[in-house]
C-alpha cells in the first residue's frame, strides 16, 4: 500500500509538471528566435532593428550605455567596421532566473574587425550572455555581456 501511495503521488507530480515544461520549451524557442533576429539585424548592420528587439531600459553589462545609447554604440561600430559579422558557434544553454527572466549563453565569433586605423584584425571568438526579459508575452534583450575565448 505504501508503494502504491508513493507511486500515485509521483505520477501526480509528474503530470502537474508537464504544462510547466511545455511553457518553458515554448519560452526557450521564443528566446532563440529573438536572438536569431538580433544576430540577423547585427549582420545587416541594423542598430534600430536590434533596438526593436530590446527592452527600452536595455543596458550594457557595465552600465555605461543605456536605452537607445546602447544601440548608437552599435551604429557607430557598423560605420567603423563595414564588414563586421557575428556567427553562432554553439549554444551553451538557457537558465531561467524567474519565469520572465532568463540568461542565454552561447559561443560566437566576429569577423570583419578592424582597429582604430582601419587595419584588419583576426577573427575573435567570444562567449556571450544575454539577459532576456518577458514583457507582455514577448521576450526582449535587457542586457548583454561578452568576453573573448582564449584558445
What does this structure look like?
It is a single chain. The protein has one domain: Nuclear Transport Factor 2, Chain: A, CATH 3.10.450.50. It has three helices and five strands, in the order ααβαββββ. It has helices at residues 2-43, 47-52, 68-80; strands at 54-60, 85-98, 101-111, 124-135, 138-148. Strand 4 (124-135) and strand 5 (138-148) form a beta hairpin. The longest helix has 42 residues, at 2-43. The radius of gyration is 20 Å and the shape is globular. The N and C termini lie far apart (58 Å). The model has no long low-confidence stretch (mean pLDDT 88).
Features:
151 residues; alpha+beta; 5-stranded mixed sheet; 5 strands; 40% helix
Topology readout:
Elements: H1 2-43, H2 47-52, E1 54-60, H3 68-80, E2 85-98, E3 101-111, E4 124-135, E5 138-148
Distance between the termini: 58 Å
**How would you name the oligomeric state of the polypeptide chains in this document?**
single chain
Q: Percent range for helical residues?
A: 40-55%
Mean residue pLDDT: 88
| Level-1 CATH class name | Alpha Beta
- For the record, the CATH architecture stands as Roll
Strand content: 35-45%
Biggest β-sheet: strands ordered side by side in the sheet:
1-5-4-3-2
Give a quick precis of the structure.
With 151 residues, the chain is α+β, with helices and mostly antiparallel strands.
Amino acid at each position: 500500500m505504501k508503494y502504491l501511495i508513493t507511486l500515485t503521488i509521483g505520477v501526480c507530480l509528474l503530470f502537474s509538471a508537464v504544462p510547466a515544461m511545455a511553457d518553458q520549451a515554448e519560452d526557450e524557442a521564443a528566446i532563440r528566435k529573438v536572438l536569431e533576429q538580433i544576430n540577423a539585424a547585427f549582420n545587416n548592420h541594423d542598430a534600430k532593428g536590434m533596438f526593436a528587439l530590446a527592452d527600452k531600459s536595455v543596458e550594457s553589462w557595465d552600465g555605461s550605455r543605456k536605452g537607445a545609447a546602447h544601440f548608437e554604440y552599435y551604429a557607430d561600430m557598423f560605420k567603423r567596421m563595414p564588414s563586421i559579422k557575428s556567427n553562432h558557434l554553439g549554444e551553451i544553454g538557457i537558465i531561467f532566473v524567474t519565469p520572465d527572466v532568463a540568461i542565454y549563453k552561447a559561443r560566437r565569433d566576429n569577423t570583419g574587425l578592424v582597429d582604430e586605423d582601419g587595419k584588419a584584425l583576426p577573427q575573435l571568438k567570444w562567449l556571450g550572455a544575454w539577459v532576456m526579459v518577458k514583457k507582455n508575452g514577448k521576450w526582449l534583450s535587457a542586457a548583454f555581456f561578452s568576453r573573448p575565448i582564449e584558445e
